[in-house]
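Folding Problem: From Residues to Backbone Shape
Fields: amino acid sequence; protein backbone structure tokens
RECORD BEGINS BELOW THIS LINE
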Amino acid sequence: MKNFTLEAVCRACGGKWTGPAPTNTELTAVTTDSRAVTPGCLFAAIPGERVDGHDFIASALEKGAACALARRLPAGVTGNVILVPDTVAALQSAAAYYRAQFDIPVLGITGSVGKTTAKEMTASVLAQRCRVHKTAGNFNNDLGVPITLFGLDDTHEAAVVEMGVSHPGDMLRLAEMVRPTMALYTVIGHAHLEFLKSREGILAEKSVMNQYLPDNGIVLCNGDDDLLSAMACPQRKLTFGLSGRCEVRAEDIRQTPDGGTDCTISAPGRSIPVHISAYGEHMVYAALEGAAVGIALGLSDEEIIRGIAAYTPVGRRARRVETGKFTVIDDCYNANPTSTASALRSLAGAEGRRVCILGDMLELGEEAEKLHFETGALARGLGVELVLTTGPLSREIARGAGQEEHWFPDRAALCAALPGLLRSGDTVLVKASHSMRFEEITSAIEAL
């Protein structure tokens, strides 16, 4: 960490100091996980639904934590504690204070889908020029963002921060901490409708980030998205996409024998041939995002080419698996109507019989049944030959696809039916919200 003392934490969050250690003690790290405590760190005690971090203050201090940030002083604790009314708010205030010490490009990434892929791709491109700090995993919420910011140190020359929102007011809290110099919007789709009500509501919440950009900041957005292309902002705006109106666009898109994608990225005065190590429409957009950031920050064509080529898929995000019998597109990490539509369009271009296995998409509010039905209808319209579904909402996908006989009451029933339904040579997309645990279905296919 950059110089960050206990005194600075107290000043940043307005906390009350209690303990024997000198307040000029410098911290080595910040964590909210008592299992990750290291000597010299600050342990923030967060009260959760299942566990309360305050119950672990004593053990954190015993492990060598320099101090704990807490709402109350547990009985018997005599070590260094900063007392605050709200540990989450205090952690965020401290993160904002710490972030302000760095005068480097900071890219904030938001959108309904594709944030983590965009984060990985843009960081890969920027890493060809400088040392980049990026969000670990998908630590993109009110606790993950401050932990990300505390990971900055003097060696970093740029930062890429993923920012996820699901409720009104979320972006305000995140942007106050991150203070990005650049904002990237992937797409405004149907996600978190339960709380943000409409695509317009999603845009209104996410675009709060623009208010925290400097006057010379840059807004990069998907020009193929109707709401983003119409979004007004006082900063410079750079659009990317597939349509001719986008300033940075992909042309001559083609699948390669290794399961990747080749395309040419065109921008004013530039033509950049790139190879992406994954297949699908969403990966082309990720490459465009990486190129747009690189162009905005003055990277060369060669640096952009190397950065895009160096990207590798993370987790269960469009992971391509060749089993010997089937080609499986394992996209079990998450799902909403926008990301599922993109995955289905990519599947439609695959060789062999096209099969999709879909499950419930959550947090869609009153439009849930309608959006599931439309997803099934899209699969039918794209010519996907076999649509298998499970989950209560996914009955509507089956209805929309005209394949109600292929709806199953649970994962076990669906897995049991796979040997009689799949054929050698099939390309199989497996996609659902993470809580549906569709990785079990992927494993069942791999075992056939």
